[in-house]
Amino acid sequence: TTLFRSLWKITTPDLGNSSPIVWEDKIFITSATSKGASRTVHCFSSKDGAKIWSTPIPESIPETSVLGKNGYASSTPVTDGERVIVFLGSSGLVCLDFAGKIQWQYNNLNIKTTHGTGSSPVIHGDLVLFFHDQNQSDSICIALDKKTGKEVWKQKRDKGMTWCTPVVIKVGDHDEVIFAGSGTVRGYDPATGNELWKLQGPTSEVVPTIVVGSELAYSASGRNGPTIAFR
User: Fold this and answer.
1) Which of 48, 54, 116, 148 has the greatest number of beta carbons closer than 10 A?
2) Helix (H, G, I), strand (E, B), or coil: what is residue 148?
3) How many alpha carbons lie under 13 Å from residue 132 in its C-beta half-sphere?
4) pLDDT tens digits, 159-191
């Protein structure tokens, strides 16, 4: 029998539902105060849990209709080994370097959806892809330059409620971004945002992220909706 013992344990500041991510000896995670007035990105050592840095994000007016069990730091960060990119609701998409210095902030977003946010950004090549359907404001479907934060493309999506994250897959000789929400599963060209195909099926409230297997992908709605398998 293998016995496990705790190597270290720390208490992170404030609250958050985001998952930690790890790059070499660094752990990145986000947190926010209970009402969302203050949000922070943290970096800890994976060796002993020591705090390397904590960077507060410039404050903005907190979004409304956020459930207490969700909160204001629910999206998981993403990194390419040089920069960490996070989505923090009304504070927008923020890029930090590995020293904790803010490189850019994109907050040209009107965040207004029931229960709060949950979708996480994805890095694909030089792009940051971010999709988030909303039922009280325009849904979000954008790509930013990961180095500058400038908008590369923006596409319209129907209103809905999603807390899932887009997935990039290899299809033959090209890549596609797939995303479930607003009653459909859709595939997009990551370079342009142009829609490539769509399947009817999911509800307008999609919680789980699409899971990709060797031949099929699986989309579960999450609230009284079907699970779809597609090639």
Assistant:
1) 116
2) coil
3) 29
4) 999 999 999 999 999 999 999 998 999 999 999
